[in-house]
Amino acid sequence: ETGVTQSPTHLIKTRGQQVTLRCSSQSGHNTVSWYQQALGQGPQFIFQYYREEENGRGNFPPRFSGLQFPNYSSELNVNALELDDSALYLCASSLGGPGQNTEAFFGQGTRLTVV
Amino acid sequence: DQQVKQNSPSLSVQEGRISILNCDYTNSMFDYFLWYKKYPAEGPTFLISISSIKDKNEDGRFTVFLNKSAKHLSLHIVPSQPGDSAVYFCAASEGRGNNNDMRFGAGTRLTVKP
Lengths: 115, 114
What we know:
By secondary structure, chain A is mainly beta. Chain A contains no helices and 11 strands. In chain A, the strands form 2 sheets. In chain A, strands 2, 4, 5, 6, 9, 10 and 11 form a 7-stranded mixed β-sheet that branches. A 4-stranded antiparallel β-sheet of chain A has the order 1-3-8-7, with no helix packed on it.
């Protein structure tokens, strides 16, 4: 039990649609990040938020966007869905802020299938 | 550009023996390394970490070794137990403050046979 919950657990969308995935972090965890894990691969970093501001981004196009809220919840939005967006999306939160190396705690993930 | 590599997709060991999982990295700016394990239908669970100022960190049955000159780290599990069967991911991050910007390897599936 990591204290990080994601919703929904599974989702099927059509190519071209938009999707919003949600994450609830542990209380006090000011840093949240999102990862995409394709089948047979390790998680790939999408972006990170610290106190509601984006402070790091991986190699993902702008149609991947996010929000972090004061109540330790966050969202990942993906516009214009493509078939290759089908993956497990993981949210991770940590206590540390910029410059502090601490472990990240992952949610169970949302399995997105784009058809 | 895969900066973290786990070249063994799978490993099988007997219960009670040692499991050694390996990981190589290419980015010399990485200064914090972590191991996560993942069971099916669950998110990755943090296992153990090591800072680049150390070459060994131990936590119970789990020990991580870091060889900076070789850009190599390994996870030792001894003794291995059937409950350790899972996919193990190696991850690394840079010291520029984006502490959750971790680069992951593709994972090694460990099977511990009773």
